Amino acid sequence: MSSRERILDAAMDRIARDGIDGVRIARIAMDAGVSTGLVHYHFATREALLAEALEHSFELAGDVRIGDAALTPGERRLRTMVEQCLPLPGAQERDWVLWVELWLRAVRHPELRPTAARLYARMHEWFQGAIEDGVRTGEFAACDASAVADRTLALLDGFGVRALLGDPSMPLERMREEVWAVLAADLGVAPEAAAEYVP
Amino acid sequence: MSPRPTLAHVRRPAILAAAAAVISERGLAATRISDVADRAGTSAPGVLYWFETKDQLLAEALTFADDRFYASLTRELARLPTATARLERLVALWPSEGDVETALWMELWVRALHDPDLNATRERLDRRWREQIAAIVREGQALGEFGPAEPDEVALVLGALMDGFAIQIALGDPAVEPARVQEHCMALARAQLDGSEDRRVA
């Protein structure tokens, strides 16, 4: 792992734990086993560090995502995608904390908005592609794949932030079930199997 | 007991309105108590008399902004003859007028990750939001406009969808147009409320 990657890895952990405002550059340097100067050399500002950490995290997850695409049929693939978007304990929960930090930071610092827009565009492309593939093979009913992807992303954010914060209205199982119920209705597949899903 | 500052002329709502505006513009981290005091036309001790910490100020400012949002919403909705029109109005008002509110909500989410008291405030305000949507659904069902869906369930899904789009609008994402967002929300509402088994949104 390069020193840059070690810094990003340490940054993701620290930001998720302490928040972007509370994070200390010296602490990230210590975790990564590098000098504070090197962290500053790679990342001039907190915004740059957050943006890069998120892009990095998305790239890491992306390796897994691309691996799935060619092999699995539409419904299974889409269920796996929804699963990868839940704030499950561990790496996905950590990504979610960074995601929520990004929202707030990007509202305050317009230079982060292109990063946010790019991440959303990739998520959109990812979902739209899977839906279109399923329509092409006849597994899903004909639909406006782009519109379905729009709604799915909005639902994932709206449910996800509540699930992340432990809201009693939205435990993880419920989030999985509700997102799939809306998707399943659009795609003309059975909604009830969500509970039986094994990733 | 500490000596009571002279603040008969400074009303608590004025401080809360100032706090909501300043925090929404700058963010809580960059907001100083003196900034809120300046905006409210008082002194920092005048603010600190009412609110001991910035987190407390955030929780109360958001509650205040929320109260104000519902007061104006209630007036608007009361003028409309049908539940469908009320739901449309709610959907139209939320992300557009919600810009100040969305930024405050984001502050609350980030802080609530590390602060159980703020998370409890967040949960209370969120429940109120869902109850508002569910109330319109119940009115529509009583008036025969909507089918027999579970109102709390519709509120849960529609509320989350609206919040998700509000986030993207607040981020200034050029791919997200407010008019399109309203269509999405109403399409989902219709799919849930038309009373048929078919829940397809499109």
Structure description:
Chain A has two domains: 1-44, Homeodomain-like (Arc Repressor Mutant, subunit A); 46-196, Tetracycline Repressor, domain 2, CATH 1.10.357.10. The relative contact order of chain A is 0.10. Chain A is 72% helix and 0% strand. Chain A is built from nine helices and no strands. With 202 residues, chain B is mainly α. Chain B has two domains: 1-52, Arc Repressor Mutant, subunit A (Orthogonal Bundle), CATH 1.10.10; 61-193, Tetracycline Repressor, domain 2. The interface between A and B is large, with 46 and 46 residues.
Estimate the global geometry of chain B from the Cα principal axes: elongated
User: SSE order of chain B, as H and E?
Assistant: HHHHHHHHH
> Mind telling me the CATH superfamily name of the largest domain in chain A?
Tetracycline Repressor, domain 2
The CATH topology annotation of the largest domain in chain B reads as Tetracycline Repressor, domain 2
Please give the radius of gyration of chain A in angstroms.
18 Å
Overall helicity of chain B: over 70%
Strand content of chain B: under 5%
Number of helical runs of chain A? 9
CATH superfamily of the largest domain in chain B: Tetracycline Repressor, domain 2
Overall, the morphology of chain A is: elongated
Give me the CATH architecture of the largest domain in chain B, please. Orthogonal Bundle
Please bin the fraction of helical residues of chain A: over 70%
Q: How does the helix and strand content of chain A classify structurally?
A: mainly alpha
Overall mean pLDDT score of chain B? 87
What would you say the CATH architecture of the largest domain in chain A is?
Orthogonal Bundle
Number of domains of chain B: 2
Q: How do the helices and strands line up, and which of them pair or pack?
A:
The complex is a heterodimer of chains A (199) and B (202).
Chain A lengths: L2 H16 L6 H8 L3 H7 L3 H24 L4 H11 L6 H18 L4 H24 L8 H20 L7 H16 L12
Chain B lengths: L11 H15 L6 H8 L3 H7 L3 H25 L4 H15 L1 H14 L3 H27 L8 H20 L7 H16 L9
